[in-house]
Amino acid sequence: MKVEQLFTCHNASEERRVPMATLSIQGYAMYWWTFLERERRTHHKPPIQYWNELRSTLRRRHIPPYYERELMHKIQRLQ
Q1: DSSP code, position 45
Q2: Coil, helix or strand for 26?
């Protein structure tokens, strides 16, 4: 994932990873992220602070469940 390469390149600490990652969010995903932050504050939930949590939340919301399976099938066909 490109954002993880940025973390490595900049030697990003865990505290800086979520802010760095959200800088690259665009379009509908940015609208969703802003809404999610507001929702969490409204319901007195803590903000997302860790990259792993943000990554899994993004995947659940924006990547269809069959996507990984299709990628694996494509890779297997190449071999």
Answers
A1: P
A2: coil
For the chain, what is the mean pLDDT? 91
User: Among candidates 7, 25, 5, which has minimal Cα distance to 16?
Assistant: 7
Measure the CA dihedral 67/2/21/16, to 10°: 130
How long a stretch of residues is the chain? 79
Q: What is the DSSP string of 26-63?
A: -HHHHHHHHHHHHHHHHTTPPPP-SHHHHHHHHHHHHS
DSSP 63: S
Q: What span, in angstroms and rounded, lies between the C-alpha atoms of 47 and 73?
A: 36
What was the pLDDT predicted at 1?
A: 62
pTM of the model: 0.73
Q: Could you state, in order of their start, the residue ranges of all structural domains in the chain? A: 2-78
Q: ∠ at Cα 65 (59, 69), nearest 5°?
A: 110
